[in-house]
């Protein structure tokens, strides 16, 4: 079996995998929340000043978003079109990232087989497809980090590489940590200043960027209602929308076993893996960085399994086949579920209706998972959304929204609605099927049904309802 | 005593099968609520030839995720009268042969192996979980232990091919295959920690089985994993039931279900085999025990299942102690009385193991109550629901052919936590309006007040049933809701 895959074939596979979800859904409609948030914020960046904050999220909040991606997308939008910035550029960055990754692994291993299989494992992972299909928070910084790593490795344009690493904190603290790890990996005793100076600059920029928020707003309020289950979010097989396959971990274990044959010769790999595991526990989105380390380990493990002498050929062939199927299963499962991912055409249509039939300063009540779309598609204020960092009264808002959703008391409901100046209530089938309520006349649904003097249904299509609060 | 092992083994098999069939045919019904779900799946498979993917009656209609190979296999025998009672009993009886082979592999002692086969087959935990229950375990357990035996006997391609096929079948039978895969992982860890070497081929087969079982389970339970993530392990069981479901074992209950003899002899066998002999086969049998203990402590496996596998493995490892005892007798002056000792030993086993086994069988519903349920089937429209305790949800759905409010299949069930609360409230509330609110919510037209309901909720009859304008006693355990 010839395992080598040419670079052009890898480019083609990457392109197909990044375009496949679009072909499956049959449209260029954005899925998920991040692209909508970035799209809205980047469009408004030139129109509004950062000091005024975001007037739509939480009906007005400090501008606590990381600026890097928003600024770059805004710039591209000004130079080209919206679609280029939101869709085409991420796909292009995905392809370049795959090629860069191939070149890095080839440089490190001098083995085309390992490089090709590593890249293949990388591009078929749901984490990779998720990151480079439509613009995401991690799309640009991941590419920049990899580019910087490659330049440092090749000893070319090192100054540019350090610049790239130093500006990564603008994209978020997570990327600053990755940047620091990359600088650390490049540490050489005879050229200490090559590491220390960029590291100091990087830390200074990170501190400066975050300090201004700390000084202005103090420590952020921790949202008590948010679940944190890293295992759930890391593995696509366990339901994560951007995770990796557990089979990559299985293979990577064999890869580590293979590396361990040379004992401490690969200390940097072990150290990076250790740090990434810690980072993954803190924030599951680091999984996209983890995959850059796990993919070559998995490739190494796969090759080890394939090349090692087995007592039974049939068991060997079947085991390799199962592992390959395991990797493909995660990708197939991800692509299959992408079509059903939100927002659906129905949600988009209803939110556009809301945009056309409500005042610009209207505040919309819905489950927090619809908040970003209310801001971005309906262009209206929400009570709350899933971006909780420095959100005003985040826990109080959560408790109040729960009170509205569960209470059958009209007066109590009207009081809370009035307190937040809520003018519309946006209800989806998912909310009625367990996300908020379980029965037809649960809590607020009962109040809405039996209080025509206080609420008016202005939209009812495909199970989506929009109720106007009569003042 | 000159033994003819094959004849004696056949005798044991006939004895075990007769005992099981006697218990199974002592009632025209089945002895567990889950049995009735399995019966419905098998009947659906026979009539439609397609998997049972949507249950119209459970939780008022819901999607079903469960491996259904067992149901297809049983359905193949539908031409045999009472096939759902006979075929599972034949499957589980085969465990005696596998237990004999495993014990013989460990001890090389046919007599000890036969006693072990009896011990395993009459384990109270095994009987209480499998007799007359159309239980998937009836096939899954023999396959698991056959795989363990084949792992001990890895010699040729033929064995390997069987393991490949069984590794493929097991996850399509029952999610307990995850436990098997976990045990294999534990086995590898134990081998490393005890510095025991095994054949390379065995390692390869274990690796293969582990990956295959994981992959097939991920495929079958994909939707559940996407919905609950790792929570799939807890099967969407409502919090109020979770503690009860994954409860820690009480010593008395464990002793009763495992059996005092397997517990003592098994523990001695583990000690001898693991620490003295460092035998890889003993380690292979010990690893499921350790993984069960770990899974029980982590509350990742329910108590009856945990005790079931614990009892089988302890009984298997008992063969070492039994063999030692037989050997000890034969080298002492009492060797002339060896036959007497053996006969006494077997009598003791019958007294301590078989007799409790007989009483471990419980009947969850009486024929009288079933007769009452059949009244609902004959006298009600098709789209109504019947409110019954959770533990009788499948039974009610089967006999009434009407929707239940809840049953014990929680994966992808609609809001089981709330439904469970509502069921409890419907039985315990004194408020008629509250009860009616619940009945209307689920379109309940009949309330089933079984012996089980009275025991579970501690009420003989809810007070609100006294209002004869709203509630009519249709049968002695069935009330019709008229309001």
Considering the chains and any ligands shown, give keywords for the structure.
heterodimer, A: 471 residues, Rossmann fold, 2 domains, 5 strands, 63% helix, globular, B: Rossmann fold, 5-stranded mixed sheet, 23 helices, 7 strands, 66% helix
Describe this structure in words.
The complex is a heterodimer of chains A (471) and B (483). Chain A has 471 residues and is mainly α. Chain A has two domains: 7-31 and 66-338, no CATH class; 345-469, 3-Layer(aba) Sandwich (Rossmann fold). In chain A, 63% of the residues lie in helices and 5% in strands. Chain A has helices at residues 7-25, 34-45, 67-79, 82-109, 112-124, 126-132, 139-154, 158-167, 173-185, 192-217, 230-234, 246-259, 267-282, 287-307, 313-338, 345-356, 371-376, 394-406, 410-419, 429-435, 443-450; strands at 363-365, 381-382, 422-427, 455-461, 464-469. In chain A, strands 2-1-3-5-4 form a five-stranded mixed sheet. In chain A, a hairpin with a 2-residue loop joins strand 4 and strand 5 (464-469). Chain B has two domains: 5-30 and 65-359, no CATH class; 367-481, Rossmann fold. Chain B has helices at 5-25, 33-48, 69-75, 83-93, 95-107, 110-121, 124-130, 137-152, 157-173, 177-193, 200-220, 222-228, 239-245, 251-258, 260-277, 280-297, 303-331, 338-359, 367-379, 393-400, 416-428, 432-441, 451-457; strands spanning 54-55, 62-63, 385-387, 403-404, 444-448, 471-475, 478-481. Helix content of chain B is 66%, strand content 5%. Chain B is globular, with a radius of gyration of 24 Å. In chain B, the strands form two sheets. Chain B has a five-stranded mixed sheet, sandwiched between helices. Chain B has a two-stranded antiparallel ribbon with strand order 1-2. Chain B has 483 residues and is mostly helical. The chains are: A mainly alpha (471), B mainly alpha (483). The A-B interface holds A 229, 231-232, 237-240, 246-247, 250, 310-312, 314-316, 318-319, 322-323, 325-326, 329, 333, 337, 434, 438-439 and B 157, 160-161, 164, 199-201, 204-205, 207-208, 211-212, 214-215, 218-219, 222, 225-231, 414-415, 418, 441.
